[in-house]
Amino acid sequence: MSNYRDDHGVVNPTGINIEGSVGIGPAGEELLAELNHEYERPAQTAGNLRNVKAAGEGGVPEDAETATAAGITEAADATDIPVSDTGETATTIETAAAEPTASAETAAAEPTEAAETAATADIGTTEAAGTTAATAATAPQAENAAPENAASAEPVQPDSTPPASEPPVPEKRTPIWIKLLRTSLLLAAIIGLFVFYYLTQSYQYTDKFMIGTYVNGNDVSGQTVEEVEEDIRARVEDTYSLTLTFRDGEKETITPEQIGYRYVSTGEVEQAMKDQNPLTWVLRNMGQTVEIDVPENHTFDEAKLAEVVKAMPEFQVENVVTPTNADLNITDKKEFEIVPETQGNAPIADAILPTLNEMVTNSVMEGSLTDIKGSYETPTVTADNQDLIYQCDNLNKFLSTKITYKLPKDVTKTIDRGMLIDWITRQDNGYYYLDDATIRDNCAKYVAGIAAEVDERHTSIPFPSTNSGTINLSCAEYGHVVDQPGETEALFKELKECTSEEKEPLYSLNKDVDARFGGTYVEADLSNQHVYYYENGQLVLDTPCVSGTKYDSSRHTVLGLYSIYYKQRNRTLRGPMVNGAPSYTSFVNFWMPFYRGYGLHDASWRGSFGGTIYYSSGSHGCINLPYNAAATLYEHTEVGTPVIVFGGY
Question: What is the pTM for the complete model shown?
Fold first, then answer.
């Protein structure tokens, strides 16, 4: 490190005039400590300063050896001469002192130039330039200064002789406060330039979005509010359209111009610009991004949308196919089948407009009418309709009913699906159903047709008698007469219940008539007063009898064709009431009536039968039989066995 001399030539390592500074105060000591720390040397104390001053006046410092060594070291620092333990430094100093005249002359010749050089040199200028300036300043005192310099540059040995020539003048250093000032000014300039640049960069983002700004996912770096709004408008208006797909695959497109579709700003882009802090642009340049979501609102004219939709070809009457309901069809096999419904392609504008308004509001760009509930006219009855399925099943069940009538003379008549298909009612709209009134009316007509073929009533019959030849037998009534009201209801019920069967119709009269009445019958020949019983064509009984009194018409036996209508054992017969009492009472063992109170029975009170007994002593109208004959007849006949009565009167 270089040393400085004061005005008296005293070596002053600090460069500060220390004359009279033996008594420096605490502030001075703090300054010295700071300077010593700055120049990396031992701290100076008041005692050290006094020693330095004494040395400058030609005396010896109290600690001469230490001072001398320090001076040699500092001189070496000032002249960039290395100091070694072998005394090389002292040799150098002696060499420099050997030419004092030349140095002085050089310094005297150019004092001004050296001074200007020292005054204008930068802190970083070589220490040699500083040494030149110091030498020029002290040139007039070169001779006096030489001993002093020599004394201060003596070797470490206390008894060494001072060099004959003066050492180089130490470099004068710039004060620390100047350095600090220069540094502060430089920093201030740099900071000012940085602040100016930073603010300039920030200012450009007062009306533009900073780098790394995204609005609705789009990079808007460097754009103004108007530019961003225009981009949104273009994206909203220029790119939107609504394509509708119809049931048959046809497509129709609705453009923004047709419905007055336009962007409506909410001001949120402008607010986002206001909320932007331009001073944070540097963070954006370092990769920070900001996502801003703003609504891309729009408006449109609903009335125009309705006009556009209703004007589409798919809504015109000539292009519309109306749906049909699932229905029943009669096949060639005379049975019903379900014909599925058809959907048609008849869209309902008023039904889809609310959904279309919502789609446009939400910027939906594609839609299918089939996805919109109620967008098309639909059939009211489908193939899976339970009522329709039940109807079809019920009608087919009705048609599957088969009723076969067994009529006299081995004639049959059948009701089947070929006839019943016409008994099913069909409305104007094509709906088939079973109408009770219609079915009942058809039943009545059908039964009437049977009756027309079957009904026959007879009051006489040619009968081949056993002993009287063929006679025209008078009878009350026989033959077949269909009970039309009863059979009509019976047939209606069977059809409604879908009951298939073979049956005879209900008869009001059902008596077969043939020459022998089927071969089983009772023949009462009153002219011969004889009774015969035939069973399956074989004669089983031939017995005399007594019939009603011939000469008393009130006691005649009825003539005609009858049948036993019940049988009873041990019966008491009573005659008409006379004076409160029966006109007669007769106990019989076998009672077989065939017409009202007329019947066949035994007559144990008679001793004989046949002949002419009946002329005057006949019965009250019954046919009296011997006990055994009556028992045989009772045993073989049944209820319903024909009884033929003829002759006698």
Answer: 0.45
